[in-house]
């Protein structure tokens, strides 16, 4: 019995994704077809179609999993311990100094190799 429910759900998901694809296609083609119309109206129409397509997409099984992923990501972001301003400044200065040191080393090696090659070539 469960396999029939999965088949029906799968078919409905396919139908929903087809409707989403059609709505996005209508938005793109309509925006091109009505290019002479006001930009405001075209943007409003595309946004409205995108919202409807998004709502339909969220009703599918993949859409529900995506919504759950977003909720979990939001919870995880709240758990992040962000650096203080002092830590951020110190870390940034360390990175800048390191980049400058490496740049100077590369410049020095490049100059040395260039000097050596010019000496050989003459």
From TrEMBL:
List the residue ranges forming a coiled coil, or say none.
Answer: none
Presence of the UniProt keyword Cytoplasm in the record: no
The record's annotation in InterPro entries points to: SecE_bac, SecE_sf, Translocase_SecE/Sec61-g
Which terms in the Gene Ontology molecular function aspect does this entry carry?
Answer: protein transmembrane transporter activity
Report the sequence similarity comment from the record.
Answer: Belongs to the SecE/SEC61-gamma family.
| Subunit structure, interactors included | Component of the Sec protein translocase complex. Heterotrimer consisting of SecY, SecE and SecG subunits. The heterotrimers can form oligomers, although 1 heterotrimer is thought to be able to translocate proteins. Interacts with the ribosome. Interacts with SecDF, and other proteins may be involved. Interacts with SecA.
Name the record gives this protein: Protein translocase subunit SecE
Origin organism is Hydrocarboniclastica marina
Instruction: Please spell out the taxonomic lineage of the organism that makes this protein.
Output: Bacteria, Pseudomonadati, Pseudomonadota, Gammaproteobacteria, Alteromonadales
In the UniProt record, what gene is named as encoding this protein? secE
